[in-house]
Amino acid sequence: MPVVRSCPSCGTQNRIPAKHLADTGRCGACKAALPPMSEPVAVGPAEFDEIVRESKVPVLVDFWAAWCGPCRMAAPHVAQVARDLAGRAVVLKVDTEEHPELASRYRVQSIPNFAVFTAGTLHFQQAGLVDANTMKSWLAQAAS
Q1: Model pTM?
Q2: Given 7, 27, 30, 68, which residue is catalytic?
Q3: Rounded Cα distance, 5 and 127, in Å
Q4: Is 10 in the active site?
Q5: Cis bond leading into 112, ω under 30°?
Q6: Which of 10, 27, 30, 71 is catalytic?
Q7: pLDDT of the chain, 144 residues: tens digit per residue
Q8: DSSP letters of the chain?
Q9: Any catalytic annotation for residue 71?
Q10: C-beta separation of 32 from 10 below 8 A
């Protein structure tokens, strides 16, 4: 289940395989560089499993819901981590209302809930609102 993203140069939709989300690629149409993912990717179970399993860099997952005030407060921090660590980490967002099976699998009982995966394995998980620097420190620990 590749992630589809637009080329910043020509607008063509490009399918990016899960294992290449942190890589710089090339647009299939105009051959311009496609930088690594620099924003959180909203995923369901199939994309989640593939990205967590295939990613060559640590993956931060934000389990959230639209009705959750602290989740909305965390969103800019999550987006900042995606921007700041593009190419060194992948950031996913899982809406627990749309995908309760993923929340259940990881025993998410309160949100926001953050999980860090490396090589397909859960490395760290914590519930509660935190800032971007805290999230970055989790990813740095996972990468070492």
Answers
A1: 0.92
A2: 68
A3: 30
A4: no
A5: yes
A6: 71
A7: 678 989 989 999 999 998 999 999 999 999 999 999 899 999 999 999 999 999 999 999 999 999 999 999 999 999 999 999 999 999 999 999 999 999 999 999 999 999 999 999 999 999 999 999 999 999 999 988
A8: -PEEEE-TTT--EEEE-GGGTTS-EE-TTT--EEPPP-S-EE--HHHHHHHHHH-SS-EEEEEE-TT-HHHHHHHHHHHHHHHHTBTTBEEEEEETTT-HHHHHHTT--SSSEEEEEETTEEEEEEES---HHHHHHHHHHHH-
A9: yes
A10: yes
Tokens describing residue 130: 């935190």
Report the amino acid identity of residue 77.
H
Q: Which two tokens stand for residue 103?
A: 């929340």
Report residue 142: phi and psi, to 5°.
-65, -30
